[in-house]
Each structure stands twice: as C-alpha cells, then as structure tokens.
Specification:
heterodimer, A: 4 domains, two-stranded antiparallel ribbon, B: mainly beta, four-stranded antiparallel β-sheet, 26 strands, globular
Chain lengths: 387, 292
C-alpha cells in the first residue's frame, strides 16, 4: 500500500516537473522572458502549472481560474483582510490585480511600473497639480509612504490618519506650534495639503477670514458651542437649514458645520473639507453604489453641488429646485422642446407631475441618456400602453 | 412511490408558502388624494388615531384625515401656519401636535377652539431641532437633530419641559434617523452606520449590529417579534427577526411608480390596521397587511 502512495506522489511530482520543463524546452517560451529582479513564487520554481493549464482553458492565457480567484488560491490572508476592509482601492475591488502587478517577474512587489508612475497612470489629476511647495514624499514619488495600496480605513487609503504625520513630524513640537486650540488628536489634513500647496507649510489655498486674521477668539472665545459657533456670524445660513430636507446634524462641542467645512483652510470654495464627490460620499455611499452599478452617469456626477443644495431644500433629493428647473438651467433646448412636462402633465402611474427625472436618473442607470428604462420601448410603454 | 410524490408535493407547497412570505403582504389601499381631489405632494409622515388615518402632505402644506377605508375626509392648514410640516401625532386631551420645520418648532393645535400654540424646545441652553415626534402615555418623545438623540418631554402647565435627551454613550455616534417608542422601550435607527439602538424602560442600553444588506435605511418599525427596516435606495422593506444580530427573514416591495411600488420612501408606521408606508416620491401612503 505504501509503495502505491509513493508511486502516486512521484508520478504527480514528475508530471508537474515535466510540464514546467516542457514550457521552456520545446522552443516556445524562453526562461529569460520570465526572469526579473523579483520573481513570483511559482515562476521561481518553474511551476507554470500553478497558474496555467497546458492544453485548454476557458480563461485567457490558459489560466487555471479567473483572476482574482486564481491569485486568492495562494494569497488567502489577503483575501480575508480584503473582506473586512472599509475602503478598497478600485482595481482591487474589481479584481484587476494585473492593473498594478505583473504575474511573472518585475521590480519590488512585481509592480507594472515603479514608484509614482504606476499611481499616476490613473490618478492623472494629482500628477498635473502644480504646487510651489511640495511635501517631500510626494516630490520623491513615494505614494506608498502615506497610502496603502490595497485597502484602508478611509477612502484616501491613508495609513493611520494623523498618527502617520507624527511618524515623521515630532508630535510634541508640532502640536505646540499650533497654539492653545491644538490637540494631539488634531486632523492635520483639514488645513494642510499632503501633496503640495502654493502657501508655506502646505497650508491649503482658501482661508477662513478669522483664521487669516489670526483672530482665533472670534470663534473659540465667544463661549458658543455647537452650531452656534458658526451661526453667530453666519446667521443668514440658519434659514437654509429650516427646510424640509436639511443637512442639520448632531453637534458635539464642535459645530456640525465642520463635518463638511474646514474652519481654517481648504482647497475648495466655501471651505469644503474635500471636493463634493469625496465629501458627500462619506455619508451617501448609495450614490457611489448607484454609480458603480450604472453604465451611464451624468457628466457632472462629481459636482454634487451643481444640482443639490448643501444645507437644505424643500425638494426631494435636496435639489436646488424642482426636478425640471434644475435640469433646464443647462439643458435649455430640452426645456423648450421635449416630451410634455410640468404642472399640467401627470404621470399616469402615480398622478405626480411629469418631470425630467420621471424618465431620467442623472445619478446613473444602465441605459443611454441616463434613462430609467430602455429607450427602445420599455420606458415609453410604462405610460403609453397602447403603442 | 406515489406516497413519496405526495410527500414531496406537500413539502413543496409548504416551502412555497413559508419561503415566500412576501406573498402574504397585501396592499389594502393607497392614501393619495385629498378631499378636494388633488394629489398628495411629497407626503412625509402618516399615523393612525381613533379610527382615522392622518397624513402630513408636506408639499401641499396641509394635514389630511382619512377614514378607516382610506376615503379622504378633511384637509386643513390651521391658521395658515403650516409651511413645512414634517410629522404629526395626537397628544393628551386630543390636541394635534405637528413638527413645523420652517419655525423649528412644534405646533400644538387645539381642534376644539381652533387655536395654535407654538413650542420651541430648549435643553441646557441649546435649542433643539425636532424632526419626528411620538406621544405615548402623556409623554412626548422628539427626535432631535441637534443632539442626534431622542428628547423626553413632559407638559408642565401649558409649556413643554425637556427632561432629558437620550444620546447613546457609544462613540462615534452619528445621530438617529428614526425611532419608535414601544411598551418595552425605545428603538432607534442610526444614520450612516445603520446600527439599531435600544433603550429599555429601566435605562439599559443595547447596540444591535447593523442589519446586513442595507444601503440607505431611513425608517424602522418593531412589531410582533420582527424589525422592519425601510431602505430608501433599494426601495424595499427588510424584515428581520428581533434578535441580535438581526437575522434577515425576507424583504418585500420594489422600485417603481405604480401602486404597490416605491420611489422615494420615507417612513414606516405600524397601525392596528396594518403597516403604513409613506412614499414621498410617489406622493402616496400605502397600507399593507398580512405578512406571515
């Protein structure tokens, strides 16, 4: 019986060795083409069969399984961590390991190109930014000094928030420089751009007037807490929150306003803490879900505040006006010449006024022109049963 | 063999009945038209009181009453005071209480004398920001957006006095989106994290794991050993067994514009007549009954 087992395992081993050897010995593939500074484990041992089938496969490159399942067969720990991650880098989420990694050999991490060049293949906007002052890791193209490549706790995949900054910048010294209101748990990125800025100390472009005037006591010294801290000066904004749909939120000691606005400095108009598509998504992941499930989205999808109010609105979806008025501001022709819409035209399905969003969903749909159903027939047949 | 087939058939039927309880939910009627024949526009809330349904027709700035069969009875805007009404409930002495957003106040409407009193709520020097209200056993509970918690309020003479605000000890805490007051305690749904918080009558606080599979839950209801959660993005009502972590039993309803479908749903409210589903987008409130 033992002899049979030994023979069996020998047979498997010898077939696999033969299979690997044959890839390079039949004059089709040269070993050198798969060599590099760093080699993928199976390549190192000439074990091509770990990933490829020799004859036929339903997957390209004669792979044994679909990517990333094939990768997860060995990288099991990675798969486990991935499932628990809060935010996942999009190529990872899509299982496109090959977007960043080579399968056989390459530089450190088997990356397709080295350093920031790899990241800038997709993150073009960051590459183009021209700053007078650059953060050292950004200047050196060391994206991974601050970011995680696969997944992280925040959408920007930054390693450990403010703690990360203190790994290079002395904590005590840095906090002390920020005066009485700073704390060790302060979020550096609210005021500093971690890539670069045109201001000294990487301070962001737009400044809150009291901060610029160094009049800290205007906000911190008035004895106000919560939203009153802001509304004491911005009284006119209060009315905007007193609408049916509102972003009025829970305030602790800090006003809820700072959930979206930076009280000191920002790279965005209105002192927003990030561009709207990043900022809004933190609380509205459903918009991102819809975008990812859609084939057609409105070209201004990322400019949430073009169509939606930031503080409050009496219209559903916190739109800036009724669902016709908002669209017609840009789509002027359709405002004059289109399928009948407006107060006098009612949707036979629910008796509500027909608007642009009755047929279109700018947040994203599987259909052209962001139609809610196929424009070939099914959308029209929703109401025009006789046709 | 035939016995086996019979057994299989019976088993299949049982499975069909019990695996598809969504079937058992039946739409009774829609509240969608006012007494003057006009459609509701962006209704935000609905409730049941003494044999009648009441709907806050926010877009048309009115409150509408319906009989138990869904026939519209009366539409009112007392004193023209309603500009952005959000929620309503009946308090002691049959007074009607309305959350009026434009004034950040509660309106106490005395129907018999046709008078309105405006109540602004303060607690420890801060003005509250009411969103939803529930009267239960002579106590008013208010969902307060300022603290994110639920304020406990009693009537003192003609005025309201905030006794305390329940804000969970757990951090981070984003704030509640909806809450329901039951005999055993208060259930509340947290925004963003989708956690369910429970506060028992004796002050014990429990955090229930977020119910899985939800995208944008906006309202909850607890009844008959089940938690009902309305998802505004998925346009579905998810039904969970009332245990921690909540185990999903089934979901029902779907996106659409026809009766029985949801477009922009906002609130769930269990009444003795069934489950009220307020759909802001379709401009209607539907009554659903059944559910195995």
């Amino acid at each position: 019986m033992r002899v049979v087992f030994v023979l069996y395992f020998w047979l498997i081993w010898s077939v696999s060795v033969w299979a690997a050897s044959s890839c390079f010995t039949q004059g089709c593939h040269t070993r050198e083409a798969f060599r590099g500074r760093v080699e993928h484990g199976p390549v190192k041992g000439d074990r091509c069969e770990k990933c490829h089938l020799p004859h036929v496969s339903r997957y390209s490159h004669l792979l044994r399984a679909e990517i990333p399942n094939l990768c997860f067969e060995c990288h099991k720990d990675f798969e486990k961590k991935l499932k628990l991650a809060s935010w996942v880098h999009l190529p990872v989420k899509r299982g496109a390991c090959g977007r960043c990694h080579r399968p056989h050999a390459g530089p450190e991490g088997l990356l397709t190109s080295e350093g920031a060049r790899l990241c800038f293949n997709c993150h073009q906007g960051i590459k183009k930014a021209s700053y007078r002052v650059l953060h050292d890791p950004f200047r050196k193209g060391q994206c991974l000094a601050c970011h995680q490549a696969h997944f992280g706790e925040t959408r920007s995949l930054v390693k450990g928030g403010t703690r990360l900054c203190f790994s290079c910048h002395q904590k005590k010294e840095t906090v002390a420089r920020h005066g009485d209101y700073a704390g060790e748990n302060m979020n550096c990125l609210i005021c500093h751009n971690p890539h670069g800025s045109n201001r000294p100390h990487l301070v962001r472009s737009f400044l809150h007037a009291p901060y610029e005037e160094k009049a800290c006591e205007k906000c911190h010294g008035g004895g106000n807490t919560g939203a009153k801290m802001c509304l004491a000066c911005h009284e006119d904004r209060r009315e905007e929150f007193l609408r049916v749909h509102t972003h009025y939120m829970r305030s602790g000691k800090r006003p809820f306003c700072v959930s979206c606005h930076s009280p000191h400095a920002s790279d965005e108009k209105f002192l927003l803490r990030a561009s709207p598509d990043w900022l809004c998504i933190r609380c509205h992941p459903e918009a991102l879900v819809q975008k990812r499930e859609s084939l057609h989205i409105h070209p201004a999808w990322e400019k949430c505040l073009d169509c939606h109010e930031g503080h409050g609105s009496r219209f559903a979806g916190m739109l800036k006006g009724d669902a016709n008025a908002v669209c017609v501001r840009c789509h002027k022709t359709q405002g004059k010449f289109t399928h009948p819409i407006g107060e006098k035209v009612k949707d036979p399905r629910n008796g509500q006024t027909l608007t642009c969003v009755t047929c279109h969903d700018p947040m994203g749909t599987p259909f052209k022109y962001e139609l809610r159903l196929s424009g070939e027939a099914s959308l029209c047949l929703e109401c025009h049963k006789g046709y | 063999m035939s016995r086996m087939s019979q057994g299989l058939l019976i088993g299949f039927l049982i499975l069909e009945i019990f695996s598809g309880p969504a079937w058992a939910w039946k739409r009774v009627f829609s509240l969608e038209i006012g007494p003057d024949g006009t459609r509701l526009y962006h209704p935000m809330s609905a409730t049941w009181e003494k044999g009648r349904f009441y709907v806050v027709d926010t877009g048309n700035r009115r409150l509408i009453s319906y009989d138990a069969n869904g026939r519209p009875l009366k539409a009112v805007n007392p004193g023209g005071k309603l500009r952005a009404p959000l929620d309503l409930d009946f308090g002691p002495r049959g007074h009607l209480w309305v959350v009026e957003r434009s004034e950040n106040a509660l309106l106490e409407i005395v129907l018999s004398t046709r008078t309105i009193r405006v109540h602004r709520l303060y607690y420890r020097g801060k003005e509250l920001f009411p969103e939803r209200i529930v009267w239960r056993k002579s106590k008013l509970y208010v969902l307060d957006r300022e603290s994110g918690g639920v304020a406990f309020i009693k009537i003192k003479g003609r005025e309201l006095e905030v006794e305390r605000i329940w804000v969970p000890k757990e951090r981070p805490f984003i704030g509640f989106l909806d809450f329901k007051v039951k005999d055993e305690g208060i259930w509340a749904l947290e925004k963003t994290f989708h956690r369910i918080f429970y506060l028992s009558r004796d002050g014990r606080e429990e955090i229930w794991s977020p119910a899985e599979g939800l995208v944008y839950p906006v309202s909850l209801e607890v009844d008959g050993g089940r938690i009902y959660i309305l998802d505004r993005y998925l346009r579905k009502i998810f039904v969970f067994a009332l245990k921690n972590p909540p185990k999903m039993l089934f979901s029902f309803l779907e996106m659409g514009w026809r009766p029985g479908q949801l477009y922009l749903p906002r609130e769930l409210e269990m009444t003795p007549k069934g489950l009220l589903v307020v759909d802001e987008g379709n401009g209607r409130v539907e009554l659903w009954t059944g559910g195995l």
